[in-house]
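Q: I'm teaching a short session on how sequence maps to structure, and I want students to see two examples side by side rather than one. Could you give me a first protein with its sequence written out and its structure tokens following it? Keep the formatting plain so it prints cleanly on a handout.
A: Of course. Example one:
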Amino acid sequence: MSDELPSVAEVMARLTAAGQPFEIEPAVVNGVEMRVWKNAPHDLRWVLDASLAHAERDFLVYEDHRLTFDEHYRAAATFARRLVADGVAPGDRVVIAARNLPEWVVAFWGIVAAGAVAVPLNAWWSGDELLYGLEDSGALVAVVDEERLERLRPHLGEGGALRTVVVVSEDPRRPARLGDVTGSVAVRDYHDFVGPVAPDATPPTITFAPDDPVTMFYTSGTTGRPKGAVGTHRNAGTNLMNLFFRAQVVAARTPATPAPSPYPSANLLSVPLFHATGCLVTMMSSLLTGSKIVMMHHFDARRALKLIESERITSFGGVPTIAMQVIDHPDFDQFDTSSVASVSYGGAPAPPDLVRRIREKFPTGQPGNGYGLTETSAGVCFNIGPDYVARPDSCGPIVPVCEAAVVPEGFAGPEPDPNRPQGPDVVGELWIKGPSVVSGYWNKPEATAESFTRGWLHTGDVARIDEEGYVYIVDRAKDMIIRGGENVYSVIVEAALHEHPAVADCAVVGVPHPTLGEEVVAVVVVRPGSEVTAEELTNHASARLAHFEVPTRIVVRPTALPRNPQGKVLKRELREWLAHPETA
């Protein structure tokens, strides 16, 4: 790094000075004093309206189907009015449970424009899990694709307040296959529900406040049933400002100003929209900046390379495994990838060597990493370009409207103790405070009180922070496994395995995997006198779990699981045993 380049602190101070676009001001949010971006969007309706500045450009591309920004705006406005006509009022919840499709995006912005709360559910969930999301959220309407409809069909009428299901066809050339639609819940084809879209359609007139709820992404944290993290307009607007701010920091810290890309901005959407990264980062920032989003029915590395070439993709990534699969594909050199200017990811540990490989394969591409949670409305730390090359094991500094603190494990106070040990070698639980942090968990006051105190989110991740404010995640939330960017919560997998009559005890851990980041491994202790095969247990788990939750390895342990005096399984010892089972 050149000595002439300003430090990160100097750049941040300049960008956030009074009168600058990233000026910071104090505010009271939910009774807590904090710093906020002065020029952040007031609400997401403003973001939707601003997209008309790019009216004639392509916004959504899926297979041979294209939607311009103007067409998207009119469709979302019409969808919003249909929701209102269906009885959806501000603050009501509307579920989206579907793979990445253009209608997913239209439905999301229609829900927002109606003043309702968008509730994206994990499209890989089982029917029982989807039913839980419907019941817990109290959603009145659900937007689903055909595959999710079939998972939910046995449960229609059981989903709490649900009264309407809007079904999207996975083939835009035909209506959705509705099947048997009798019962108390109305099941309607998406296009039939939306009806004609007028070329001058506008959303209904709704008044928004920055701290009104607008999203509810489900996360399990590390224990228990999934929890709906209630995000506000301020949370989402802050995330947009965080992204734009970090881009300016990178520009100021880059030794030589790169030539402008000859290609319009185009993002390959390779992560699900039901994740905060896909929705709040890629989709939302693209709408505001006029960037094209290219969707895939499912991720395939060769197909991704073909789209990079044909659509002149300038940015892709999402999770490290996506970047690795593209780079490692044997046909990589057959495609023109010269348009790629950014390969960024988060959501899973990234091997430091990935930075070198990205720079080798994409000479004009900026590698980037970041850190954030569903509870922080996506990213609050970013490490991009030369700074990432210099510190490939860091996720970057915290954005200046947020605070980060490392507290001792087991600390019980509501705020970080100012007298706690501090310094670049101090390791502890990472706490985060700021306008990115969600207001809490839907209808779960005890879980909210446990994770949120005086504006501080207790992340459960173990970290350290160096002298320049760069955050290093040294361990992750206890008992959570990140497999190909998907969070797998061991307690859920363990509960499913415990249902098998031959299982006396079990524990689920993550072990390193070359492309997925981690694989899910279950260690099982069999009841005396019982016998069971790994295949039988795998089939048992497959019938109860989403496919990404099913263990890729099931190992029968001949002795009891290692536990501490309080009865907690010592999973670190279990990982060591898996590496050397002869030590049992």
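Q: Perfect. Now a second example for contrast.
A: Example two:
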Amino acid sequence: MLSSVNTRVTNAAKVGKRDMKKYEEIHFVDINQPVWNYSLFSDEDVRNFQNGTHYSLYKLMGNKQITVNDTPGSYFAVWAPNATFLSVTGDFNHWNKESHPLKVRSDNSGIWEGFIPNIGAGEAYKYHLHGFKGICLDKGDPYANFWETRPKTASITWQTDYEWQDAEWMKHRKKHNSLNAPYSVYEVHLASWMRPDKNNEERYNTYAQITERMVPYVKEMGFTHVEFMPVMEHPFDGSWGYQGTGYFAPTSRFGTPQDYASMVDAFHQAGIGVILDWVPSHFPYDAHGLFMFDGTHTYEYADMRKGFHPDWNSYIFNYKRGEVKSFLISSARFWCDQFHTDAIRVDAVSSMLRLDYSRNAGQWEPNEYGGNGNIEAIAFITDLNETLYRDFPDIQTIAEEATDWPKISKPTFEGGLGFGMKWMMGWMHDTLDYFNLDPIFRQFQQDKFSFSMMYFYDENFMLPLSHDEVVHGKSPMLYKMPGDEWQKFANLRILYTYMYTHPGSKLLFMGNEFGATNEWNYKSELQWELLEHASHAGMKHCVQKLNELYRSEPALYEKQYEPGGFEWVDLNHRSESVLVYMRKGKKPKDSLLIILNVTPVVRLDWEIYVHGKGKWKEAFNSNSEAFWGTGDVFNPNISSELVDKPSECYKIKVHLPALGAVVLK
């Protein structure tokens, strides 16, 4: 039996034009062609794999197109320790499950491997296993670089080779990823940012089309980084990528791995960093995926008190198992190594750390010390961060951790988990609660507003207004704000000004920047038509200018994680709800004074006492007419009076617009 190039092209999902040359040569595979004994593994590789210390398995496992004895073909390697038979079945042998068996290594590693001549790129394939108690399974390749587009579930023989053009970015990205650099993130769901047909959820823009549209937009908006919600292959659109099956493959929904690499390359050439959402906390139970891979709990804990996640109806990795730890850390390194990723945002860290996460009494078992910490997960996370920062010292790792677990972003040598940053969930909840209040009641909740600085220096915090806040009935950002239409926009402009002038890096989910009026829907696209309205166009312009302010003013980033970079100036006007604070850079002349008037009352000649500076000018006003504000309350000249020479105390008078934020320099 023979397979032809036509079969391969049909099954290779969405092949880019430059990749078509890979299909021009027809390889004929005889079904009786034996699998050659061949291995890429050394004894040391096997030991490290089993010990949980092999962090580049993507170079060995899965499918590799190589040449053996002058014969081109594909090497396959997969871990299935409880399988009794394992073969490669696919297009090349017309899905015959017996014709091309792999051989298990004799070292008890559970690795099955072999070389099949004359198989090139573009072949759909799976592993056929006889597993525990004789169960027969057909599984995708956990290490595959490319998969069929859902609802198909086969892996595709492919490599990630790509000629990068981002040398300039890679040379200097350390300064862009530094904790004392502006770090403003635009969070994106690739499928729903923009579609070729906004009413057809089955149609997507390609990676190339996304690149053409998104790179100039993010550049125009002034964000320093873009964060992709999980691009790793996943079977169900409704999981938004958080239920993944392909930990080493960009999703084929939008094109090939090379097309994805080209998109990252384009962002880098535009001076924009790329952050990936990565999910080592859980995986789905799809039959072709990791669950019960060889008929046993191979990748997940066998004890469902640790191995099943009740919130997401999915399964939890067995962090105690060395082979699983090697798999996960290799995945994180893969994205940094092969696709030049600038930061890894680790999802659902709380669920990994806590044995009692979303579990009631009796549904979890304490660790050996009687506590609720998952000791194996803690060890995995610290090793993950140490490895990534060792091998890629100019990246960041970012934790989504929603509890008060200590030292998330402190170095491991200080007893921390070693992340570079942590999402500041407390700030997000308190801030949204505060701004949701009718302005007349804000005077009674000022402590909720100011509380964030009580614990800000405990971690390196990122301020997130993410996708999670605009779904499931939580309402879009605009409609979280009180008041009539004008007041909603004015409140949202203050909130964003507060975020951009508060210490810490920033994250804004797509659509938030122009005041979407619908909750985010992964089946549709953003409401781009809203930009025809001056109110929404003004909001977009406001965010653009805030990004510009953040990037251009050293006081907003140079000392954003140092106590000397922030100072409360005036919190003593609760009844008027006027809040004043100062941001400081390395040079005194760079200091900024931020005044927030969070009630719909104009306040003329508002007196503020500041030390050390007598001359101020307005650098930003959220009430600008360009932002759909009234534009009639601003500060062309700011009066200043020295009231105490020894302490260099000055009284300045400022006009404060209703529901407005003013930044002085």
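Q: What should students look for in example two?
A: Point them to this: The domain at 5-156 is CATH 2.60.40.10 (Immunoglobulin-like). Also worth mentioning: The longest strand covers residues 71-79.
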